[in-house]
Amino acid sequence: MEEQHVQIEQALGNIQKLTDNIETVIRGKRKQIQFVLTALLAKGHILMEDNPGTGKTVMAKTLAKSISGEKAGAANFKRIQFTPDLLPMDLIGSHIFDDVKKEFVFKKGPLFCNLLLADEINRASPKVQSALLECMAENQITMGETTYPLEKLFFTIATQNPVEMEGTYPLPAAQLDRFYIKIYFGYVDEATELNIYKDYLGIQNNLNDIKQVLSMQEVLFLQNETEKVFIHEEIIRSVSNIVRATRQHPDIILGASTRSGITFLKCLKAFALVNGRTFVTEDDLSEITGAVLEHRLIFKNKEAKQKVLASILTKELDRLKKLNLTVGNNPIV
Amino acid sequence: MGIGKINSFKKVLAQLILLALPTAVFIFYLLWRLNSYYSILQNDYFNQGVYFASGMSIAIAFYAYRFRFFTTAGVVFLLCFIVYKYLGSITVGEFDAFYFSIQFLIFAILFSAGWLVGYGFGRSKYFTISWSVLLLVSQIVVVSKTTEIRADVLINAFVPVLAYAFYIIYSAELIRNMNEDETRFSFFIFKRIGGFAVLLLVLFLILFSLFGGNFKAIEKEWGGSKAQQGKGDDNSEAMTKKDKDGFVSNKDQTKLSGSLSKDKQLIFVAKLDNFFTDGVTPNPLYFTSTYYTRFDTSTQTFEIDPKMPYNDLYEPDPSKIPLYFAKADSNIIKNSLSTKNRKVVSTEIYNVYLSPSEYLAPSTAFYCQPISVPKEYKDQYRSAYRAKMWVSDLNSAYFIYNPAGNWQLAKFQEDRFNLLREIKKINGPDKNFMDYYTFMPKDEEYKKISALTKKITENASAPIDKIIAIRDYFLSKDEFNQPLFKYSDNPGVPGLPSANKLTYFLLENRKGYCAYFAGATLFMLRSLGIPSRVVAGFSTTDRSNKNPGWYWFYQDQAHAWVQVYFQGYGWIDFDTTVPDVNTQQAPQPDGTPPPAIPVTYLVADGEVESVDTVTKQIKMSVNKLLYHDKDYTSKEKKDLLMDVSMAVIKTDTGEVKLNVVKKGMHITAVSYAEVLKNILAEKNDGLAAIIDKLPKPVPIDEIKLFAKEEIKKLMDKKQKPKEVIDWVKILWILLFALCAAVVLVFFGPWIIWLYFNAKAKAEGPSKAYNRYRAALYYLNQLGYAKNEMGPNDYGNYIDAQFGTRFNLFGNTYQKLKYSTLQLTESEQKTVNEFYSPFIKQVKSKVPFKTRVTRFFNIYNTINYFSKPKTE
């Protein structure tokens, strides 16, 4: 027990280090980094939406480089640029006839990796998008009769251009559901941007010389530890309230599913860990509700998209704010 | 002009139900009231209400579409105008044309008004406000038309308008702001309106419970005043007033007004022992209730003045005098200033509808003795008393009018005039007396009266001749040989509300009821320097020869006349009111008078000692005793056992049961029992000795209870003591409530803060919670609201503002709240030591002035406690 505690403390410390590490390259994006790590620890995947050139790819790269792989070197990082003519085989791999063995052997595609960057995912055809479904949900690929397991640590960072842009195929709801978190990367503020311009060479170097601060084992360990994070009953109630509220709200056409609720809980726990805590607080709720739920809901109009979830959340936060849970729970001696 | 909907069906429906319907109801009410003031409306308020409502509803439905106002309304109004003109040209006959066009005009005006209102509800944002103002103004105009501004008139007029105005402004704004796409639109609307209604109800209930007693009094006042007024004639005046039990008495003041309402109700019956010198012909006398010696020029009201010089008005309360015990005041005779031709006359008054405490008698009464009413007549007469008066021989109801060919009466009049003609100049006992009774307002209007009087009395020298000249003036004929003055209960009012009604009566209208004649005569006499006063009471008519000396008094006999002072003879009645040709023959039959009262052998007055309802016996301690008409009142008290099985137990207002009688009550017991006839008193017997001689128990025929508060409570609710509305108290309570509300609104946030702060400073298991809450509240009140921020963001925001370590505390609090982990030592220290320095730090950063102004802002508090709205 004591040993595990020490281990957690250390792992949590390493997460902080990892965040700091990534921040040397991706400046002014602490929130986004935290979200990415949350998705990672919750054993989920993340979808980042924004215009090209806001640092999405670099983010994925840096993360991959910061995690040491099983063997020497960084974690196995693959990047796929999605285009309209991309085929599922290009992702999964294909059977190729081996002249020597006189049989078809399975040539693994880029999916067999630890960290996959699916760039501009919404530019590929729905067929390709759906090929990602199984591997993201089950961590395995079935090809004909054979099922190939993926790596133990399999984390997808997908990026997409804003849906309104030309030549995009919007992701179906089922596919979106696989992404635990969707974030908007966004541009940095003026001061940070100026800073980046002044120091872009340094950043380049940082990327090249990035240190490996977290081992694969530690990541897997933390993924398991995530489940053990304490979540108070009242916060679970809040999650339930929020999920139910999305279903009843007149401005939401499609509300959140029960699976979304479970994902929500997982993300809450993971986010708490990322913030160095082993318990979930109101803050976690207030921070990630939008990132977890928004892309799962279908709103009546744009205005509703901006307001509804925030107001539901505000109501819940208000409820929590007024609760007095300290009595009997953890009395101060 | 493209036609498209502006308002959805739902919104139109909401407007129709929630705005148009209450408005229609209110307009019905308003029209109903207007109808009673304006005869042109023909009392057709139902149809008129329908015109208005239809115009309004059509307009609401119509303007739900994208119609323009000016063109459409223009067409409607033009149409109305054309029809109006057309109607005028096709109708035959002057009356028809007039009638139809007036009717149509009313229709057109109301329909158009409804149309405008409907448009206003549908489309105009600020319409309801101007509409409410318009209604208020119109109500003010209506109220100004009533002569009497009483509390109930004001309440009737303004409370509905104000309530309606609040309602309509509120709900119109509500409907306007509602998003009709909302699925629960109707629910929201009805929730709000329901809330409004509940709020009103609660307010009303609070008011009612606070001022319950006062409200009951108001209610009674309303009930009373409604009974007194006829249907809808607010502009009338009665010579008598009724109290809450329906008893009649003369009014404390008499105002000149547009019309007089009279009832044909028997008020009392009197037996008057006044006969002409032949001893057979009854000589009726007017019954005096009170004297009006003063006239308030600003309100044109005659008033009673208790401080009149040589006050000869005897005002005992017969209900307070023990039965058969007499009360007299010899000062009255002295103050009557009369020695010549006076004698004592007695009268018995049997009260039917007179207020029990009212005392009426011909002038100048000085004696009052309550007597009992014979058993068989109990239902008919409530009470009775005997009165004695210092009556002048010169006084008579026939003094001026109605010789009616009767030589005896004609001679009588002539004799008396001759007697008074000897007085060439009237001198009062002193200057003060003369000044008081000849006082006249110094006003142009009164100078007109003076001039007229001079003209009329040119040829008369003696005061009595002047009086006769004035009388003759009222009786004179005009150039068409028609009576110059006419009696009318509805003389109408001068065009200008403030105009002098007396000069209007005397010089222009020449129609009026007794108060006008009396008032005019008073000032005519006073302008000649003749001391005079107005008397209110009942005129006496000798209706039949069946029961000589008995007179019946109905409510329409309530009367006012004038008394003139002649030195030596005292005050003499003069009546200048011309006969009322319309009601003179009113069939008001006399009844059978009550028979003579049996001889009372025993009258005992005292307090009840004990009551036995089984054997029907009462023991009383007697301190006043009348035995065989001899008074044995003494200081000693003696117990008397009475058999009351046959007795009638009475109060001022009716019979009661024996069980009402309780120990300690003041009662008077009367016995007519023949047994007592032969038990005679010895010469030196005192009260105790007589009681000892009486049989035990002594049979009693009648018991009178003196109404004390507790007895009144025991009796039926009608007898409740009159509750006086203490307006000053109400005002104070209102003021207090207002202050409390202000304090609550302004100091509420501060009080809440004191509470939170106190809780935060206390130690205990919830101290982290209390401190966090207090800190949040404090910051919120200073304008740094948390709103939708998470605790961490908020903490950072606050720390950036004030340089505090709120975030650290917040995080610790969160740990405490949501985890099962133990706090580390440093965290505990944070919890323990955070609060006071934090508040101090915040205080130092926010200037005192800003802090105070923000702290008293109730909106911040509301924001803190209210739940965030779901968009």
What labels would you give this structure?
heterodimer; A: 333 residues; alpha/beta; Rossmann fold; Helicase, Ruva Protein, domain 3; 2 domains; two-stranded parallel sheet; 49% helix; globular; B: 871 residues; alpha+beta; OB fold (Dihydrolipoamide Acetyltransferase, E2P); six-stranded antiparallel sheet
Write up what this structure looks like.
The complex is a heterodimer of chains A (333) and B (871). Chain A contains 13 helices and 13 strands. Chain A is of the alpha/beta class. In chain A, a hairpin with a 2-residue loop joins strand 7 and strand 8. Chain A starts with a helix and ends in an 11-residue tail after the last helix. With 871 residues, chain B is an alpha+beta fold. Chain B folds into four domains: 202 residues, no CATH class; 325 residues, no CATH class; 115 residues, OB fold (Dihydrolipoamide Acetyltransferase, E2P) (Beta Barrel); 124 residues, no CATH class. Helix content of chain B is 45%, strand content 16%. Chain B has 25 helices and 28 strands. The relative contact order of chain B is 0.06. About 3% of the residues of chain B have low confidence.
